[in-house]
Specification:
Layout (H helix, E strand, L loop, with lengths): L11 H18 L7 H22 L5 H25 L7 H6 L6 H24 L3
Helix pairs in contact: 1-2, 2-3
């Protein structure tokens, strides 16, 4: 079961495709977005290790050790992505369109729904509540 609001895919094959796109975007725009080359390299290296171990774990000759190493590589890749997104993607240079291109959903819809519900409960609901006593 996936976490609600999680931008990283849960299925490994989809995560690899997502990671390829993310790595391509940060490699192409890392300098423009002020992301250090060492961080970009760390994410791409973690992705490459995960992809290699994922391929080995999918083969019929796999064993428990390979699967555990693959799971550790997957978790390391996810941790590097989350750290980069948390600390680097808050930069105002990176637009929402850039974030979406990287596979990161924006919270615009969430804030819109929150605003609508807040308006309803702050302004409209009290009016109907008091009108029923008239």
């Amino acid at each position: 079961m996936s976490k609600q609001g999680d931008y990283l895919p849960q299925q490994e094959a989809v995560l690899i495709d997502w990671g390829d796109n993310f790595a391509a975007e940060i490699t192409a725009h890392g300098t423009e977005w002020e992301i250090p080359a060492a961080e970009v390299s760390g994410v791409t290296t973690a992705l490459a290790a995960f992809k290699t171990l994922h391929t080995q774990a999918a083969s019929p000759e796999r064993n428990r050790v390979i699967v555990e190493e693959k799971n550790e590589a997957r978790d390391a890749f996810k941790a590097k992505v989350r750290a980069m997104v948390k600390f680097r993607f808050e930069n105002p240079i990176i637009t929402n369109a850039d974030r979406v291109r990287c596979g990161r959903r924006t919270a615009v819809l969430h804030y819109f729904i929150h605003y609508i519900l807040s308006c309803y409960f702050l302004y409209i609901y009290p009016i109907f509540f008091y009108l029923r006593f008239l």
